[in-house]
Amino acid sequence: MEGVILHIVISLATGGLEKFVLDLVRANQAQYEHVIVCLEQLGELADTSVADSISLNMPPGLRLSVAFELAKIAHEKKAVVIHTHNEKAQFYGALAGLLTRVPVVHTKHGKNSTDWRSVVRNNMAARFCKKVVAVSNDAAVQCVEDEKIPAGKVMTILNGVDLTRFSRVIEHAEARCQLGIDPSVPVIGIVARLALIKDHANLLAACHLIKAANHSFNLLIVGDGPLRSELEQLTASLGLEGCVIFTGSRSDIPELMQAMDVFVLSSRSEGVSLTLIEAMACEIPIVATAVGGNPEVVKEGETGFLVPAQNPVAFAEKIIHLLADPVLRQQFGIAGRQRAETEFSLSRAADQYVKLYHSILHENKT
Description:
By secondary structure, this protein is α/β, with parallel strands linked by helices. The chain folds into 2 domains: about 5-160 and about 345-365, 3-Layer(aba) Sandwich (Rossmann fold), CATH 3.40.50; about 170-345, Glycogen Phosphorylase B (Rossmann fold), CATH 3.40.50.2000. Helix content is about 45%, strand content about 15%. The strands form 2 sheets. A 7-stranded parallel sheet has the order 3-2-1-4-5-6-7, sandwiched between helices. A 6-stranded parallel sheet has the order 10-9-8-11-12-13, sandwiched between helices. The longest helix has 20 residues, at about 345-365. The model has no long low-confidence stretch (mean pLDDT about 95).
């Protein structure tokens, strides 16, 4: 073991950022010991962590005492690097790094708010970080252009997934049978938190158009969140009850993906979506909104289609195109798997982080 990496997150609630942090810890546990500090609650994913997890139960508002608490934990755990994930964690982690002289790495998992307060806070915190890692080139551009972080301090490490977990492990028919879905009916699927930024309402509007065009399908909505009741009501008002299945939060995502013919993502904003990578790893063609890092994951016309955000007509047209062309679906699926293996494996991302930790620690010694 080469020392302790102290990760700081808001919580370990179900989400892409949280899943990636846990995967990164798991992939690098042979090289470093890891400790995860949650500023707020632990969250349901804490039980799956191979690292020690600590919750500070931080109340709302600015709490400078949190920086001192983090500094104390870093000292007690003998942390060699503090690794923060997203802006609140960066703010307090950077201050803790300043207090302890432990180098700080920050990962920017998506675009932050462009409100001037956020921009100033992130710029200030970045001054105390050795490196700011963007998970997409789009996020890296925001660091430099909007937050005025020196370009030499910013680097990009694309997110990755465990490709051994995501592949065609069972047949379509078997996966659908387990969900009570007619094997002859095509399945459109989305895996995302039921929150405004994911814009499921746009997807449901697109599905209403698909049904109006006399195409049969099932829509599998995997995930939970604050908008579930509202989205269920919208489903009913659009006459889609017989087509849409809300699964709630699930831990068997790789198996659920086996039932899907087309994977969709309707987000208004994204960093690098792990679910897009997971879908490609499962050889599922994609229709996604052209926002954030999505165009860096989905190759237009090669692994799927990109459409404007909040445009249900364009969304519906591309979904129909894929539903009507099984050969194209297969071509996109094979190309997606190849792209996931080349660009978005967890091992590749984990190796890049280890090299970054090594270089920072070597720099500190010289």
